[in-house]
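Tutorial handout. Part one gives the primary structure; part two gives the three-dimensional structure as tokens.
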Amino acid sequence: MTRRRPLNPNAKIALDEMKYEIANELGITNTPDYNGNMTSRQNGLFGGYVGGNMTRKLVEMGEKELIDRNKRY
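Part two.
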């Protein structure tokens, strides 16, 4: 099985930044004193919220890029 990797290595950094920004917007904080005391269920719930919002924002960004690209032609 192949592992998914970003086409651009800098994309991982940008996606991580986006992940923390969205989590912060949702009130989900990763505090420095966090020691992994969340259950799998809690992590799944929070991850779902963050992942869903990340996907939504990435789709919006892609749509905007396509619209902007078509305006240039």
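Part three, for discussion. The mean pLDDT is 78. The chain is about 70% helix and 0% strand.
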